[in-house]
Amino acid sequence: MTDPVLLSSPDALVLVHQAGAVRRLTLNRPAALNSFTGALHAELLAALDAAAADPAVRALLLTGAGRGFCAGQDLNDPAMAAGPDGRVDVGAVIDAHYRPLVLRLQLMPVPVVCAVNGVAAGAGANVALACDLVLAAESASFIQAFSRIGLVPDAGGTWLLPRLLGRQRALGLALTGDKLGAAAAAQMGLIWQVHPDADLPAAAQALAGRLAALPVRALALTRQAFDQAQSLSLDGALQLEARLQRELGHAPDFAEGVAAFREKRPARFSDR
Fold first, then answer.
1. CA–CA separation, 170 vs 162, rounded Å?
2. N or C: which end of the chain has fewer CB within 10 A?
3. Residue 148 and residue 152: Cα distance in Å, rounded?
4. For residues 68 and 118, is the Cβ–Cβ distance under 8 A?
5. What is the pLDDT of residues 163-205, one digit of tens each?
6. For residue 26, with 0-12 CB atoms within 10 Å meaning exposed, 13-18 middle and 19 or more buried, which class applies?
7. Measured between alpha carbons, how far is 69 from 60 in angstroms, rounded to an integer?
8. What's the whole-model pTM score?
9. What is the chain's percent helix, strand, coil content, to nearest 5?
């Protein structure tokens, strides 16, 4: 495995490493369980944009430093301060930070793996779930903490949770705010896999590397097709499939995949 190269400052709020074709982004506010601030949002969005624009990146891995993935919004951040009327405009924080972040994740041109190394609470949980494949450490937990402070799930939670779990389980987690352990999250279909804590970094890196070796343009369009098909009729989904297959069928990766199959050799994919 290629040794990761640090591309950011070692004290950045988002550590950026490159190992082969995998770009790893690490939320780096461990003393605050990597809770979101405006500054962290700015660095993370910039890092995601840079990864999207870099042809050397064929898969993305998102994780957290220290003992947690992300505890959600930092309530001490200046963005959460009350205005002149004495009220906090939480909607403005969503519009300014979480909406661009979640949409950026959904539109990444490469597959996105999230390694949840500890607690993922509130918006932190839903940002993790917005990634394509979520792996978690055995000690990790997921908490929809919004009801405890009089809010609804955000960072895409109202869209993601019912689709992943169904209405009853989604409502159960959102209304109670109960902690969900990693094993239970995997059993319910909320996440992809659980690994022993010590094995999670290597497992996540290996999965991201495996995805990077596949035709990543097709993987990104698979995500798009799944998301769009949720609001389509069966006939609409079939038409979407035809359009995407026409596009991919004209691309070099399809020709390479067919040639490799016929020649009984590993494929060398290059589309992005």
1. 5
2. N
3. 10
4. yes
5. 999 999 999 999 999 999 999 999 999 999 999 999 999 999 9
6. buried
7. 16
8. 0.94
9. 50, 15, 35
